[in-house]
Each structure stands twice: as structure tokens, then as C-alpha cells.
Amino acid sequence: MGRRYENPPIVEALCEFQFEPDSPWDLVMPGLVYEKVRDTFSKRRQVKQLAVGISAGPEGVEQQVRTTDRMQFLREDEKAFVQVGPHLLAVNHLKPYSSWQEFLPLIKKGFGAYCDVVDPKKIHRIGLRYINRIEVAGQGIELEDYFEFRPFAGPSLPQEFGRFLVGIQVPYEDSRDILRLQLTSASVETPDTAAVILDLDYFLAKPGEVALEGVFEWVDAAHDRVEDAFEACITDRLRQMFEEVTE
């Protein structure tokens, strides 16, 4: 088990499964999934999701924007919810996030219900993503005091800069999986405070490479790698701010 904190910076954790387009789907399926999860996710609502795609056509590269309907099944406090759409299942947990031991059973419940109803044949993509918002009091803070993963400007460049975005992609399992790390400056409402978003997204980059029966072995490994990467991105100064639990 990794480190635990009294004040973790996680604002949202989500696990998303995309299934192959030839998997069964019809409009009654979300309602059937709801019946299987309603003891935990009692509320429901319909939302529209914006999808942007790029395709090559006779006129050149074209951008396509479309909307899709999703059903959300929410826990009573609305801090955790299941999303179901055509060939898609996502389980989200908003702040406050307590532990993986609490989140994982919610993922398993949503996945089990979806598979019982839809009986998908193959997984196209899996993603486990943690979005952290970190605020530090003070003006002109030094990023190296708080982050091991941060922007670098060579000595011939100005060392003071404003907004920033830095990211890398790290391959795992012979590039079957990718960990996308991104650190971005964020706006704040509190004076003399700096804020950043640390986004860790571990996903299956090679469609179909994980079988249905191996999903949670993949998910557990993904969580370990995200957790290790998070710890590698921060310094002890931030750990003190998050108040590490030592018992």
C-alpha cells in the first residue's frame, strides 16, 4: 500500500472502459444497468457529452464535433457516479477522495453490472486518471521546492515566467500502456496563492490487448504506477502540506 494523506489533493479520479463497437448495445441497456447499481448509485440523470474527432476526407483534414447521450447514476452525496453510454462505462469519484480501497469496489460494481447487461466481447481502451489540484500560499514560489516534475528553462532564458504547461508520455509493457503526465498552472481566487493541476492518466494504448477477465489485474497495476508517479512528482515539502498518515 502506498502513502496516505489527511488532505490529498485529488479533485477527481476516474476509471473509463471503452468497448469495441461491435459489442451489443441498445437504448434499454442503461436502465438495466441502473437496476443493478441503484442500491449504491440511487440518483440518475441524462447528460450530453461533446466529442471532437479529426478525419481525412476529399477536402483534406476535417474536424468533426458531435454530441452523445450518457446516463449518470449517482451516489446520494453525488461525489461518486457511474456513467453509461454506447460502448462506454466510466466510474468517477470527486473530492473528497479517501482511498483506493474505497474507489476500487465502486469500479468493480459498475463494471460487473455493465458486463452482466451488455455482455461485451472485447475491450478497446481502459484508462485510469487522477486529477490533482495543488495550491501553495505565497508569491513567486520556487517550483523546485515542491515538484520534481516541472518546467525547465535553460540558463539563457528568463527564469521567471507566468502560465505554463508541461507534459510527457511514458511507455509501459512494451508500449502497450502509456502514462501521460501533465503539470499546468491554474487560476486562483485567493490572493498570494499559486495553483497547479497535476494530471496523471494511465491508459491502454494498444486496443484489444487486455482481455475482459484480465481487466482488474490491469487496473491494479495501473493504480500502482499512477501512485508511484505521483510520489515521484512531488517533494517532501508537499507531503508535509498533504499531512501524511504514518500509522
Task: Supply the key terms.
247 residues; alpha+beta; 2 domains; 9-stranded antiparallel sheet; two-stranded antiparallel ribbon; 4 helices; 22% helix; 41% strand
Summarize the structure.
The chain is of the alpha+beta class. Helices cover 22% and strands 41% of the residues.
Shape: globular
How far is the N terminus from the C terminus?
A: 12 Å
Radius of gyration: 20 Å
Question: What is the spatial order of strands in the main beta sheet?
Answer: 3-4-5-6-2-7-10-9-8
Biggest sheet details: 9 strands, antiparallel
Strand content: 35-45%
Mean pLDDT: 90
- Total discrete domains: 2
Secondary-structure-based class equals alpha+beta
Tell me roughly what share of residues is in helical segments: 10-25%
Describe it for me?
- With 247 residues, this protein is α+β, with helices and mostly antiparallel strands.
- It folds into 2 domains: 135 residues, no CATH class; 101 residues, no CATH class.
- The chain is built from 4 helices and 11 strands, in the order E-E-H-E-E-E-E-H-E-E-E-E-H-H-E.
- A 9-stranded antiparallel β-sheet has the order 3-4-5-6-2-7-10-9-8, with helices on one face.
- The protein is globular.
Layout of SSEs?
Elements: E1 4-5, E2 10-19, H1 29-37, E3 43-57, E4 60-74, E5 80-85, E6 88-94, H2 100-118, E7 123-137, E8 165-172, E9 177-186, E10 193-204, H3 215-233, H4 236-242, E11 244-245
Helix pairs in contact: 1-2
